[in-house]
Amino acid sequence: MAYTISTALAVYFVIWWITLFLTLPFGVRSQHEDGEGIDGTDPGAPVIARMGRKLLWTTIISAVLFGIGMVCYRMDYFNIERLSKLMGIPI
């Protein structure tokens, strides 16, 4: 099975979203931890989310993971015979 552009974009899209959810909690300080609470807001709300930095790191990390996956796919590490043998499923 050969990758098409749409398949590669779909795989990258899924990796990107998973990576985003993994990077969201890093570096976030809540109002309660920082001691700066605004009346009427939740104490667990972030003071500064720094979403631009998180989106940049998400893009970089997901590109590296996608690249590793593509190299493994091109080197035939991700073929159906090898994966089925690894999982113990007869073909």
Q: Can you give me a brief rundown of this structure?
A:
The chain contains four helices and no strands. It is mainly α and 91 residues long.
Lay out the secondary structure:
Elements: H1 5-23, H2 31-34, H3 51-74, H4 80-87
Overview of this protein structure:
With 91 residues, the protein is mainly alpha-helical. The chain has one domain (5-87). The chain has 4 helices and no strands. Helix 1 (5-23) packs across helix 3 (51-74). The longest helix has 24 residues, at 51-74. The two termini are 17 Å apart.
SSE pattern, N- to C-terminal: HHHH
Domain unit count: 1
The shape, in one word, is elongated
Unreliable stretches, pLDDT < 50, 5 or more residues? none
By DSSP (H or I, 4+ residues per run), the number of helices equals 4
> Mean pLDDT, as a whole number?
87
Share of β-strand residues: under 5%
Number of strands: 0
Q: Biggest sheet, open or closed, and with what strands and sense?
A: none
Distance between the amino and carboxyl termini: 17 Å
Rg over C-alpha atoms, rounded to the nearest angstrom: 20 Å
| Helix and strand composition category | mainly alpha
Features:
mainly alpha, 91 residues
